[in-house]
Design a protein that fits this description.
By secondary structure, the protein is α+β, with helices and mostly antiparallel strands. It contains 7 helices and 4 strands; from the N terminus they run H-H-E-H-E-H-H-H-H-E-E.
Length: 308
Amino acid sequence: MIWDEAVKINGADPDFHRRDLFEAIAAGDFREWDFGVQLFDEQQAAGFDFDVLDATKLVPEELVPLKIVGRMVLNRNPDNFFAEPEQIAFCPANVVTGIDFSNDPLLQGRLFSYLDTQLTRLGGPNFNEIPVNQPKCPWANLQRDGHMRMRVAKGRVNYEPNTLAPEAPRADPTHGFAGLTRAENGDTMRIRPESFADHYTQARMFFLSQTEAEKNHIVSALVFELSKVETPAVRERVVSQLLHVDEGMQTAWPAGCVSKRRLNRPPQLHRRVAKSNPRLPSASSARHQKPSKVAPSRCSSATVLTAV
């Protein structure tokens, strides 16, 4: 669906997408996606020309092929929207044996913040006893009490090892969770590593991997958003950043959105030759659509910006 179609449909029916999905599932036309992973070791990661711990980077499939391991299927609608979707508590700290946490700074922050969010949003530490958040396999632990506790714990033992309740749950040294053993070195500092400084190479790869229709959709979206920015200098700085991505973008910007003076070419920061990469994720579903023109915005006549 292209932008103009989406605007018209949403204006007439704001719930179009939600109802379309609900009705399709109810009719047995289940939505499904392939579930894939990319697997590589630390030695491979060290050889990439980007930092895999930088959350703004993707690992191109040419470097690490995608391995499909299953499917994710939406095969039923919620029985109760509040009891299920509204009370789901996603938390990246919940992992199974064989998976551990990387030093990704974004992940490390979320390991704390997601749990903290659920404690507040769902009323206390026992949100894991809400049916939609309960494990689907048998489980046992020594957690007890706290606000909104559902399970009734019996006995007086809430610790292990103990001699008073030998039948109480115990950690399994063989099959229980074990963290990854790895060596760390260097100083701990509150800085952003130099390996995070390349902001443009993958953005350029992504843009060049798109069809002409998709490129026009991206440009149209940028024009739409920038037309709402009130300060001309801010608009010009945004366009200067876009010239880092692709100097030949030659975007038609409506007059008044950016001044007609030529922009200076931005300094060459971490520039690399980025070829078109057809395996990077697509920005839209317009692969088979004919190229479309840039959609007009609230500003009128157009002026073309090029690097000088």
